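Thread: quick sanity check before group meeting

JM: Hey all, I'm pulling together slides for Thursday and realized we never actually wrote out the predicted structure for the chain we discussed last week. Dropping the sequence here so it's in one place. If anyone has concerns about the input, flag it before I start.
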Amino acid sequence: MVVIGGCAHSGFVNTVESGLKITGRNKLTGWIGGTHLGPASNQQQVKTIAQIDQYNPHFLMASHCTGFAMMAELHRQLGDRFIPSFVSQVINLD
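JM (edit): ok, ran it. Output follows.
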C-alpha cells in the first residue's frame, strides 16, 4: 500500500493502520505527504520513527509539516529510502 496525502493530522501511524485495515493489505510500501511530526512532541516523534522502522517501507517521501529536523532524522534512519518532497517534484511509482 502506498499512502498519498497532504498532512497526517490524525497521526502517521493512525493513517497507515486505517489504510491497511480498509485495503486488507499488510505492508506499507510507501508514503507520500506530510507526516505532521514537526510539531509533535519528542516522545511522539520517537514512537513514530520506531513504528516506521517496523513498517519497513520501500520509500517515505515526506513534505512540509514533517519539519527540517525530522526530515534529517528520517534520512538518518531510512537512508536512501527517505525522499524529501518539494513543490513540483516528480516521483515514478513503477
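AS: nice. The beta strands are 2-7, 30-34, 59-63, 82-84. The helical segments are 12-23, 42-55, 68-78.
JM: adding both to the slides.
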